[in-house]
């Protein structure tokens, strides 16, 4: 049984928010450490809303929780038309605008913090496009990026450090397709495989979290050179 937190340790706080988005209010969850200004803020994007994807998806939740555990202030949000977010699904164009608005809100809240973006499946595609177009983003984390269904070619020129994580038994985003696309992306980059992992990492969320911790090479307060 774990004991009490060490004296002076920051307390985790989860807030429900409504953020102004380009198509209306965006439902969001912000996880911060009270009493401590974060060195890193991280935005996490959810999978395809037309297939049930929301910010409460178990993979999104585990990625967000792991980044927060490493020290980051983490914002999850629902794309337009998902959950309580206003607006209608826009096939990725409007969703990129939603993510940009959420990142701007997070950056305004913690202006001195470095910015990371992450996403799972459809959310990885949105995160990739956001990171490639926003020079303020210092790290991109993609879980099971759908390279066969969406265009990730912009990562061939993007200098942002890239981390891709995928299960070896992913039935939606085949590992061979990711490996072929990954080979064309610009450095710096890293690919971590979760042995036996499916697209949704059934019974292997712990392995995903372990791979993420290991790949980042330490707390979020560290530098982006951990991807080697």
Strand content: 25-35%
Q: Describe the biggest sheet?
A: 8 strands, mixed
* Spatial ordering of strands, largest sheet: 1-2-4-3-5-6-7-8
Radius of gyration, in angstroms, nearest whole number: 16 Å
CATH superfamily: Alpha/Beta hydrolase fold, catalytic domain
The secondary-structure class comes to alpha/beta
Mean of all residue-level pLDDT scores: 92
Say what the CATH topology is.
Answer: Rossmann fold
Mind telling me which CATH architecture this is? 3-Layer(aba) Sandwich
Shape: globular
Structural domains: how many: 1
Order of helices and strands: EEEHEHEHEEHEH
Helical stretch count? 5
Q: What is the share of helical residues?
A: 25-40%
- What is the name of the CATH class? Alpha Beta
Count the strands?
Answer: 8
Low-confidence regions: 1-8, 221-228
- Amino-to-carboxy terminus distance: 36 Å
């Amino acid at each position: 049984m774990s004991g009490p937190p060490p004296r002076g340790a920051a307390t985790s706080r989860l807030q429900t928010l409504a953020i102004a988005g380009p198509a209306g209010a965006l439902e969001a969850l912000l996880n911060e450490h009270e009493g401590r200004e974060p060195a890193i803020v991280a935005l996490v994007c959810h999978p395809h809303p037309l297939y049930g994807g929301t910010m409460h998806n178990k993979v999104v939740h585990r990625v967000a929780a792991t980044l927060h555990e490493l020290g980051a202030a983490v914002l999850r949000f629902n794309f337009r038309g998902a959950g309580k977010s206003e607006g209608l699904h826009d096939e990725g164009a409007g969703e990129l605008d939603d993510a940009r608005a959420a990142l701007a809100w997070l950056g305004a809240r913690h202006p001195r913090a470095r910015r990371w973006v992450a996403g799972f499946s459809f959310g990885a595609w949105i995160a990739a496009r956001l990171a490639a177009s926003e020079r303020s983003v210092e790290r991109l984390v993609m879980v099971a990026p759908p390279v066969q269904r969406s265009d990730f070619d912009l990562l061939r020129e993007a200098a942002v450090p890239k981390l891709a994580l995928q299960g070896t038994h992913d039935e939606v985003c085949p590992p061979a397709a990711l490996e072929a696309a990954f080979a064309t992306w610009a450095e710096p980059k890293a690919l971590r495989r979760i042995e036996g992992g499916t697209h949704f990492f059934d019974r292997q969320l712990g392995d995903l979290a372990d791979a993420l911790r290991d790949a980042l090479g330490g707390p979020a307060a560290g530098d982006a050179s951990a991807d080697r």
